[in-house]
Amino acid sequence: MIVLGIESSCDETGVAIYDGAEQKLLAHQLYSQIALHAQYGGVVPELASRDHIRKLPLLVNAAIEEAGINLQDLEGIAFTRGPGLIGALMVAATYAQGLGLALDIPILGVNHMEAHLMAVMLEEQKPEYPFVTLLVSGGHTQLVLVRDFGNYELLGESLDDAVGEAFDKTAKIMGLPYPGGPELAKLAEAGDPSRYHFPRPMLNRPGLEFSFSGIKTKALLTIEEATEADYPDIAAAFQEALVDTLIQKSLRALKRTGAKNLVVSGGVGANKHLRSELKRLSEEKGFQVYFPRSEFCTDNGAMVAYLGCERLSRGEQSESVKLLARWPIDQLTERASKE
Ligand code: KG4
Ligand code: ZN
């Protein structure tokens, strides 16, 4: 099945085409709205929706050209149904509905976090089931046991802020441009992580929950007492504390489930320190670690096209377009059928 995938849940317009028979990505187009939102220091929902409308048809045309196919060759369309900004989600959903009707092909709304979780399947190095996924994005921090395709158990999640949010808010206090996560990571490369110390939240308690609001406050107080020359060292110590916390909890999840494979997905999965530390530890401790390439960790259409292809090929399709601002990954079918 040749499937068009569209992502528009936040500030990236992503369009991709995946060929299920060949198991191959035929096209991948991405337009980031970062420049648009940067002056406001965060995503402005109305501006995001309007910009998705402006860019989406152009990206679809570009993807069709990149794949070397005609629009009529498409056999299904997948779009992100939630979680996300409702107005932004609406753009891909209505576009998919219109194009689906015009081409007389099935459409399917998919879960954004499941798409992140499955993005690793676009890589040559794929994990075998079961595996534990560390899902780390701007809105979520979760550990999920993946027993099989579509069979997910939420092992633990953040009780307050997501880890990406902790990166972004601390970067903002340092005056770094939006989105702060990658900027803070860049600054940390030049810093000495041993000059400052940040707590590893929730590590002294059993369980797989996270909490990042306290460490963010500690960062604020530290930055207030420092000068700009100290920022790289603060960034390095802060990043190390976050990465260390994510890693310790992931190791705990592997131990508890008995799984030998760990997958990291979502925007924070692009963090170089997290990737290199996990690679080092996997050799030391004898587990396997898998990541999507960095451009498929952050929001993109490829993961939507892949997941859509898997589900459409199994006969699933959406009859109507009802969006979900919140859609927990362990309630895929219950919530989807009710709303
Ligand atoms: O998955 P994503 O693109 O969008 C959501 O679904 O939220 O994740 C975006 C988050 C932002 O908080 C961003 O700052 C963070 O991922 N991020 C990073 C890095 N690249 C993106 N955080 C730390 N280091 C990075 N290299
Ligand atoms: Zn995302």
CATH class of the largest domain, please? Alpha Beta
Task: Tell me how many strands there are.
Answer: 10
Give the tally of structural domains: 2
Major sheet characteristics: 5 strands, mixed
Helix/strand-derived category reads alpha/beta
Which regions are unreliable across 5 or more consecutive residues at pLDDT < 50?
A: none
Strand content: 15-25%
| Shape descriptor | globular
Number of helices: 12
Spatial order of strands in the largest sheet: 3-2-1-4-5
Order of helical and strand elements: EEEHHEHEHEEEHHHHEHEHHH
CA-CA gap between termini: 28 Å
Organism: Ignatzschineria cameli
Catalytic activity: L-threonylcarbamoyladenylate + adenosine(37) in tRNA = N(6)-L-threonylcarbamoyladenosine(37) in tRNA + AMP + H(+)
Keywords: Acyltransferase, Cytoplasm, Iron, Metal-binding, Transferase, tRNA processing
Subcellular location: Cytoplasm
Features:
Nucleotidyltransferase, domain 5; 339 residues; five-stranded mixed sheet; binds zinc ion; 10 strands; 2 domains; 44% helix; binds 5'-O-[(R)-(carboxyoxy)(hydroxy)phosphoryl]adenosine
Structure description:
This protein is α/β, with parallel strands linked by helices and 339 residues long. The chain has helices spanning 34-38, 45-67, 86-103, 112-118, 163-173, 180-189, 213-224, 231-257, 272-285, 294-297, 302-313, 332-338; strands spanning 2-7, 12-19, 24-32, 76-82, 107-111, 131-136, 141-148, 151-157, 261-265, 288-290. The longest helix is centred in the last third of the chain and has 27 residues, at 231-257. It is globular, with a radius of gyration of 20 Å. It starts with a strand and ends with a helix. The model has no long low-confidence stretch (mean pLDDT 96). The structure holds 5'-O-[(R)-(carboxyoxy)(hydroxy)phosphoryl]adenosine (KG4) and zinc ion. 5'-O-[(R)-(carboxyoxy)(hydroxy)phosphoryl]adenosine binds at residues 10, 137-139, 164, 167-168, 179-182, 185, 266-268, 270-271, 298-299.
